[in-house]
Description:
The structure is a single chain. The chain is of the alpha/beta class. It folds into two domains: 5-73, no CATH class; 87-235, Zincin-like. The chain has six helices and eleven strands. It has helices at 49-58, 60-73, 124-154, 193-206, 214-223, 227-235; strands at 5-12, 15-24, 30-33, 39-44, 87-90, 93-101, 106-110, 113-118, 163-167, 174-176, 181-185. The strands form three sheets. A four-stranded mixed β-sheet has the order 1-2-4-3. It has a four-stranded mixed β-sheet with strand order 5-6-8-7, covered by helices on one side. It has a three-stranded mixed β-sheet with strand order 9-11-10, with helices on one face. Helix 3 (124-154) packs across helix 4 (193-206) and helix 4 (193-206) packs across helix 5 (214-223). The longest helix has 31 residues, at 124-154. It is globular and about 65 Å long.
Amino acid sequence: MKPNVIEESVQFGKRRIPYHLHRVNRKHLRIAISPDLRVDVYSPKSSSDQQVKKAILQKASWIARILDKIETYHPLPSPKKYISGETFIYLGRHYRLKVREGKNQSAKLQGRFLWVQVTDKQNRKSVRRIVEAWYREHAQQTFQRYLKQCYVIASRHGVDKPTISIRSMKRRWGSCTQAGRITLNVKLIQVPVHCIEYVIMHELCHLKHHNHDRGFYSLLTRCMPDWRWRKQSIDQIALGCD
């Protein structure tokens, strides 16, 4: 737990809702609910504890509804064992892992299978390393391709050209900085293409509007008129366990 993050909770009827309170430099309180059922509250430093709890209680019904929806319809998958027969997802499609032994280490899609070759197939760490490297390589290629396509549209609306990086994130599909850097979750390579396009366009619009204000959604709608359908799709996908 970071020093500036406090674990708190509120009582909503018979239900206790725990949350992580972040005291930050912002004007308004923000509540974020992650696919792992974590509730993060970002509060202005000037707000008192009583004001924060009052604001959370006002949103308690919504928080409980979202938590129930995630838990009921989108349970988090179990951690992978990296053995033959397991299912791995790539661009929204399911592939069975097939591990075999050989002199060289490699991974490739063939039919409905993800074939991984290692010197010792009992070495799960080695299998995992090959699979993760394969995902990252394909993520680099795929994200760059769709970033280029999305930017052609966003640039018409005054969005500056960003730089892009890829890393593993536990609770976010993507993020951006005011300096113009977009970071995409490597796990985004597992979701359908229309969801990847949505996340990229979402972050591109944040380069011009850093908050979810009216200007941001107006720009997003101009750049991607069907974003609501795409957002609904990715909201139904839980971030997988490592």
